[in-house]
Design goal:
The chain is an alpha/beta fold. The protein is 31% helix and 25% strand. Strands 1-7-6-4-5 form a five-stranded mixed sheet, sandwiched between helices. Strands 8-14-13-11-12 form a five-stranded mixed sheet, sandwiched between helices. The longest helix has 16 residues. The radius of gyration is 18 Å and the shape is globular.
Length: 317
């Protein structure tokens, strides 16, 4: 049997999509007993985007993918991995639907469901497929329409959720530009974040999630850096899951982030988009010219399951 020769992989391009409709905190005040000050103080969110009739997981994923392909300067891939917790159908999966919409020529198609850590899981799978020669170029997409599974009578969760998509093109490289992944789960929080019932609705144990995020996330982030054999001082961009500003800021502080290091805080205007949050925030900042080319980035997601995953990647050069 032929021995496989490992090789590197790299981010080639980034893309994103958000619905046009904006839902402000003032709008939510009309739905539940809350107010702008309460929402901003406890989450950092000022507004979020929500789907309309023409938007869904597939259409948003297609739009983000097209931007990423254009950014990478390529028009084809041989592997599509899509992560979403708000998918409408189980079969055919989102990856297959998106591949058809993009006119791709029979790529491998995989869906991943690890909720808020989904993009990091999917990116790691793409890296592994490319590293072992199973793929030459992959498209990784996080796409969510969380507002369609939101309980609009629950003021603790409806202030968080939002919709959008982010995507990345990953290709083979002579050198490693994406590190090995650190991934795992927290058994005692397995049911802390759920999407279930008929109709399906999102719910969470907010206190349990917040407690883990404030005590366990820094430890995992340091493991990600160690796996990549880099130090916190080597990081240019911190791209954490956009769950809550009260989680993002303490996590950055726990890693002793410097003022010149970029900590993405897209949560303020995009809300929590679960598996889409990291690629969405990263791509928006990238296309706005706010991130350095080739900049070293720590990507770290955690949420439903209770899962976590993270790795270090260089931005396109």
């Amino acid at each position: 049997m032929k021995k496989r020769v490992l090789r590197g992989s790299a981010l080639l391009g980034l893309g994103h999509y958000q619905p046009e409709k904006v839902l402000t905190n003032s709008d939510i005040e009309k739905l539940v007993d809350t107010n702008d000050e309460w929402i901003v103080t406890r989450t950092g969110i000022k507004e979020r985007r929500v789907v309309e009739d023409h938007d869904n997981v597939v259409s948003m994923g297609v739009a983000a993918a097209r931007m990423a392909l254009e950014d990478a300067g390529v028009d084809s891939v041989d592997l599509v991995i899509v992560t979403s917790v708000s998918t409408e159908t189980l079969s055919p999966n989102n990856a297959a639907k998106i591949a058809v919409e993009l006119g791709l020529d029979g790529p491998g198609v995989i869906d991943v469901n690890t909720a808020c850590s989904g993009f990091e899981y999917a990116l790691a799978l793409a890296d592994q497929a490319i590293s072992t020669g199973a793929s030459e170029r992959a498209l990784v997409i996080g796409s969510e329409e969380l507002t369609r599974i939101t309980d609009w009578t629950d003021r603790t969760t409806c202030v968080l959720t939002a919709d959008g998509a982010g995507a990345a093109v990953v290709g083979a490289s002579e050198e490693d530009h994406i590190s090995g992944v650190v991934w795992g789960s927290v058994p005692e929080l397995a049911e802390a974040v759920e999407v279930k019932g008929q109709p399906r609705l999102f719910s969470q144990n907010g206190r349990g999630v917040m407690r883990w995020a404030l005590t366990g996330s820094v430890k995992i982030a340091k493991q990600i850096l160690a796996q990549a054999e880099v130090k916190a001082d080597d990081i240019d961009v911190y791209a954490f899951h956009q769950a809550n500003l009260r989680i993002i800021e303490p996590l950055a502080k726990g890693l002793k982030a410097r003022e010149d290091q970029i900590v993405l805080k897209d949560i303020e205007v995009s809300g929590n988009t679960s598996a889409a949050s990291v690629p969405l925030a990263l791509s928006k900042a990238w296309h706005a010219g706010e991130l350095p080319r080739g900049g070293r980035t720590l990507l770290f997601g955690f949420g439903g399951g209770f899962t976590y995953a993270g790795l270090v990647a260089d931005l396109p050069a």
